[in-house]
Structures are given as structure tokens and as C-alpha cells.
Design a protein that fits this description.
Elements lengths: L1 H46 L1 H13 L9 H22 L5 H28 L8 H17 L15
């Protein structure tokens, strides 16, 4: 009788352990689905045709000069700095995979940082927003490290003749 009780206890313990493992797997799947949904919405924004055309215009002109830019240009710079800042924020807080983000967009991140860094500094220095686009800056640094590690012979001349900083 004692052996039967011991066997029943072992079976219950195994069942509980399997149940916990199943619950953990389900939570992981929910997290992956949320991550994928967030990444999709961000990447849709990245690939949107009007955003692409605006980024191309910024990249074609090279590093921006916010002191002499029009109000419309300043708004354009802010929109794209904010977009890349949100990418950095989402990856820093693990809402999206930084690895996937860097694999797909490290070149674009570096290019945009090279062009928009003067605008970011302008916002920090002239407008007094000391942490403006700090997640964009951190993401650009991570992108540069990623490219240096994975493509060591690559020259990082992305934006209209600019050199990486």
C-alpha cells in the first residue's frame, strides 16, 4: 500500500512539473507573439514609402544643419529622430529584439544617426532637452558595434560622405 502511495505521489509531482513547464512555454509563446507584433508595427513604419522618401532626402543632404534649417525641416528631423529614438526605447526595454533590429537595420540606423546627430545636439544644447533622443544615440552605438563585429572590413561611410563618429 505504501508503494502505491509513493507511486501516486511521484506521478502527481511529475504531472505538476509538466504543467509548470507547459505554462512557461505558453507564456514564452505569448511574449514572442507580442514581440513579433511590436516589431511588425515598427518595421511597417520603417518601410512606409513616405518615411522612406523623407529618410532618403535627409541622407542625400548629409549631416543636417539645424541652426539654418527651416521650421519644416526641423519638424522633419524631429519626426525621424523620434522614430529612431522609439526603436531604441523598444529594444532597450526588450519589447523588440535588439539582435533582429540590428541585423535588419544597423546600416540605416548608423546613417540616420550620422545625419541627425547635429540636430540631436542642437535640441540638447539650444533647447535644453538634455536627454533628447538618448535611446537613438545608444541604438546607433550598438549598431556601430554590431557592424564592426560582424563586418570588420566594412567602411562605415553611409551618409553623404560623412565618417562615423
Amino acid at each position: 500500500m505504501d508503494e502505491l502511495a509513493e507511486a501516486a505521489t511521484i506521478i502527481q509531482a511529475v504531472t505538476v512539473i509538466l504543467g509548470i513547464l507547459f505554462a512557461i512555454m505558453q507564456l514564452r509563446q505569448v511574449s514572442l507573439a507580442r514581440n513579433l507584433e511590436t516589431m511588425k508595427s515598427l518595421f511597417d513604419g520603417f518601410a512606409e514609402l513616405s518615411s522612406y522618401a523623407e529618410r532618403k532626402a535627409i541622407l542625400d543632404t548629409g549631416p543636417v544643419e539645424p541652426q539654418t534649417a527651416s521650421e519644416q525641416d526641423l519638424l522633419l528631423y524631429a519626426r525621424h529622430a523620434d522614430f529612431f529614438h522609439s526603436l531604441g526605447f523598444h529594444s532597450r526595454n526588450k519589447f523588440v529584439s535588439r539582435r533582429y533590429l540590428l541585423e535588419l537595420y544597423s546600416g540605416g540606423i548608423i546613417s540616420m544617426w550620422q545625419c541627425l546627430e547635429p540636430f540631436v545636439q542642437y535640441m540638447r544644447d539650444e533647447k535644453g532637452v538634455s536627454n533628447y533622443s538618448h535611446d537613438f544615440e545608444a541604438l546607433a552605438a550598438a549598431a556601430q558595434a554590431y557592424r564592426a563585429k560582424n563586418f570588420p572590413s566594412e567602411s562605415l561611410r553611409w551618409a553623404a560622405g560623412s565618417e562615423p563618429g
